[in-house]
Amino acid sequence: MGIMLGAAAIGLAYPLLIGLPGSEQNVIPRFASKWHVGAGAENQPSMQYLVRHQDMEFLAKLIFLEQAGDEQNVTLIIDDKKTGAHFENTLRLGQAYVFIDVPSEIKPYVHALDVTVFSVRDVVVQPQYLVVGAEWGTTFIGKFTPKLKVVQYGDTEFEFGILKTFIISYKVNDIENRFWISESLPLPVRAEYYTLDGSPDYSYDLVWLETSEPLLPS
């Protein structure tokens, strides 16, 4: 009995000892929040990213509109930093968060978003715990199968202000790829990815945000 009580005490104190998110509310890890792709879309946030992928650099504003059954309506505004091209379209996201019936003139930009901002849908296929140390499954990089893990929680500075974020990462040899999640937003807010030889693959960063619901305080 003494051992059982001791284990219970350690379990209750665990989040306080390691500074897990929610520890200020005395929440133990198994009761932590979960995140999934599309979380918070019902609050219709507007999110603008600076995306760098291969030789492309562009601003992409995603304005989440109403949901229609299993689909999500989104206004996508593209501003190409290199060519000056500007596009504005209202599109549909399917249940798997894939754009449907994309006009040909913006297909290169949608493809770039698919392999950057939206690529998280391919590895986070079910709700995952927002707890430092939690594993989010396995990804496949050639012959490597690294595990995704929540490695950090805290304030992250952006051009528009500070958000509470979780950093999820995986390593292949000495190369670490990372993306940042904000609990109340439907997509990651930042990412840094590299190829297997350590060269930059892509990056994106949230540069503007507007939401009808208050986010976690900094």
Give a quick rundown of the structure:
Helix content is 11%, strand content 44%. The protein has 218 residues and is mainly β.
Note the topology:
Layout: H1 2-18, E1 34-35, E2 46-53, E3 56-68, E4 71-80, E5 86-93, E6 99-100, H2 107-114, E7 128-129, E8 135-138, E9 147-158, E10 161-172, E11 175-181, E12 190-194, E13 200-210
Helix content: 10-25%
Structural class category: mainly beta
Sum up the overall morphology in one term: globular
CA gyration radius, whole angstroms: 19 Å
Strand order of the largest sheet: 6-5-4-3-2-13-12-11-10-9-8
Write the element-wise H/E pattern from the N-terminal end onward. HEEEEEEHEEEEEEE
Question: Which architecture of the largest domain would the CATH scheme give at its second level?
Answer: Beta Barrel
Distance between the termini: 42 Å
Largest sheet: 11 strands, antiparallel
**Total number of helices:** 2
Number of strands: 13
Residue runs with pLDDT of under 50 for 5 or more positions: 1-28
| Oligomeric state of the chains present here | single chain
- The fraction of residues in strands falls at 35-45%
Q: CATH topology of the largest domain, what is it called?
A: YmcC-like fold
Tally of distinct domains: 2
- Summed over residues and divided by their number, the pLDDT gives a mean of 86
